[in-house]
Structures are given as C-alpha cells and as structure tokens.
Amino acid sequence: MSGRRTTLTIADVSVGDELPPLVIDMTATVVVAGAIATRDFMPVHHDRSYANAQGSPEIFMNILSDTAYCSRFVTDWAGPEAMVRKLAIRLGAPAFAGSVLTYTGSVTATAVVDGEGIVEVALQANNDLGEHVSGTVVIGLPIG
Amino acid sequence: MSASSFVSDMTFQDRLDVLVGTDMRSGGPTVAPDPVNQPMIRHWAAAFEDDNPVYTDVEFAAASRFGGIVAPPLMLQTWTMGTPMITGIRERGGAPQPSNDRGPLTVFDEAGFIGTLASNSEFEINRYLRIGEVVSAATVIESISPEKTTRIGRGHFVTWITTYSVEDGEVVGTQRFRILKFIPGSAA
After folding, report:
1. Mutual orientation of helices A28-37 and B38-47 as an angle, nearest 10°?
2. Closest chain A CA to residue B97
3. How far apart are CA A71 and CA A62, in angstroms?
4. What whole-number distance in Å separates Cα of residue B177 and Cα of residue B160?
5. Domain count, chain A
6. Contacts of B46 in chain A (CB under 8 A)
7. Could you read off the pLDDT of B22-61 as tens digits, one per residue?
8. 0.95 surpassed by complex ipTM
C-alpha cells in the first residue's frame, strides 16, 4: 500500500520514467479475495479440485483482479487524483495461487490535451512461469 | 435465437459467423442488482489493498477533483456481475444462475468447447461512478476467430463489446473483452 495522498502533475512526468515495482504474494487468500470482491464465482478462482479437473494445478487469478491490480499499480505511483482513462491488458501465463507476481512499467508518452495532462504507461507483470500480463494504462493528471 | 433448428447443413464456422453482432443477452441490458455503494467499494479496495482515499475517505474525496467518493474505475465490470446461486455453481461451470437461455455461446458448449479462459480486457473510462448510480451493461459480440491451436487446447477467441450506462442513458465507459472457448484436454 502506498498511502499516497498527493498527485503528480504532468510537469513531474517524463517519457522513460519507471514506476516503483509492485510485488503481490499471490496466496490462495489473495486469489479468492479478488475473485469474490469482483463478484466472479467461477470455481477455477476458488475451488482447487475443480481447477485440477480443468487441467490447472491450482486456482488462479481472475481477469477482473488483473485489471484491478494494473489500475492500483499506476495510481499508487501517480496519486489519488490521477484519473484512469484507458486500460488495455492481455493475459499470458496464469497467476496460480502460490506464485509471486511483480508489476513493472514505464512512461511511454505524455501530452497535454484540453487542459489535462495525459500519460501513457506500458506495464507488465511476471511470475515464475514468465509474463502473466502486459498492457497499457492511460491516465489524466493535473497540469500543475 | 436457436441456431440448431435451421442450420443442419451449415458448417460450425458458419454457425459462429451468424453470432457476430448478436446481443449476449436476449432480455436486453443487464442492470446492476444494487446501486454503486460504499460497502462493495470498501470490500473491493480491501481485497486489492488499494488505499486510494478517493474510494473510501469521505473528507479527502470531497476536496478532490472528483468532489466526493467515487467507485474504483476498474470496478465498472463488477457492478453488473450476476448475483450467484451458490448451490450447483460447480456443476454449471461457474454460471451464476441456472437458466434455459444461456445465450449465444451455448453453440460452443454443444460442440465440446466447454472451457472458458479470459485473454484480453480493454476499458475506456468516460468518468468515474458515484454512490447511488445504477449501472446497466449492454453487450454485443464483435468477432469470433477461426479455430486456433493454443497452449491449453483447440478453441475459438470470442470478442464482445460492453457499453456501460447510468439511468439517464449517459455512457460512462466501454469495454472490449476477449475469451477463449476451448476443448479441455485438447492441447497438443
């Protein structure tokens, strides 16, 4: 948790800036908490025997949790008044319970549009199986 | 629409192509069972350990650009998720409710493509939701791929577009979502 209560302005951000990494210890509790908080009751996200029958060694994170963590990763860095305008992710290797997921990312574009600072971040999260998720998030920041 | 009654001489791919442009739900948009509310936001923020104060701190949120508590933008899809009937959910493969009308994707299940795996999610957020707003989701199938061989088996990628609106019709966001419908155990 960042506890951040101030927000970056567009003047604080440059292309190539790296975001502080976010490390998630993907316990079964974390997987289940995310699935239920997003109201996704698919058994592969909470029932290991069901996941096994589907050919998975463990329960795994649902995509609504993926979008949640990608959003948090960016706003933890940018601050509470950064507005998420676009988020696009593609899933790769699963995030199984018992793995550790590390989010990294950097700024790929900045602009000022209609009085708002626009920042694009390219991100990815990897675990022991390789790249779990990659994508981009576009946020709006104050001009400062 | 029942695809099976008039398409006996169509190929499986023909039957899939017919689905493009179809509403995912014959009964119209899905309306959230509850308005945007603080308890569900607090539950979500705790699950993801997202301590952004505009989601839960009334005083901070009031003084922010948002002027009050807002829902996490990536909760947009959560508000219209079906309220589950827990009994039997395993047997239904996670379908929240038993139903005779399982929608256009039934054609996949009947052909053995019973597995479902999400692969892409893309949101455009027009504005954040406020406490008390009621979200509706209207979803249309955008495309269905030819059969692909993937790491987890043979399947088809299905892409749909969901438009999220509030009571007066204002569109608050859109989402493109892609899943793989696959045959479990068919991996090479």
Report:
1. 160
2. A41
3. 15
4. 5
5. 1
6. 33, 37
7. 898 877 899 999 999 999 999 999 999 999 999 999 999 9
8. yes
Is A63 inside any structural domain?
yes
Q: Is residue A32 part of a domain?
A: yes
User: For position A22, which CATH number holds?
Assistant: 3.10.129.10
d(CA A57, CA A128): 14
- Residue B171 to chain A, least CA–CA distance (Å): 14
Q: Is residue A97 part of a domain?
A: yes
Provide the terminal-to-terminal Cα distance of chain B, rounded to the nearest Å.
34
Residue A136 lies in a domain: yes
Contacts of B52 (CB under 8 A, 6+ apart): A72, A75, A76, A80, B45, B72
| Residue A83 belongs to domain spanning | 10-141
CA separation (Å) from B97 to A35, A106, B101, B162?
Answer: 17, 42, 10, 20
> Mutate which of B69, B114, B116, B125 to test chain A, going by most A C-beta atoms within 10 A?
B125
Q: B interface mutation test: which of A63, A65, A137 has the most B CBs within 10 A?
A: A63
Closest residue to B122, CB basis, from A5, A85, A88: A88
CB atoms within 10 A of CB A116: 15
A89-104: pLDDT as tens digits: 999 999 999 999 999 9
The CATH class of the B12-36+71-182 domain is alpha beta
Within a 13 Å sphere around the CA of B88, how many CA atoms are in the beta-carbon half? 8
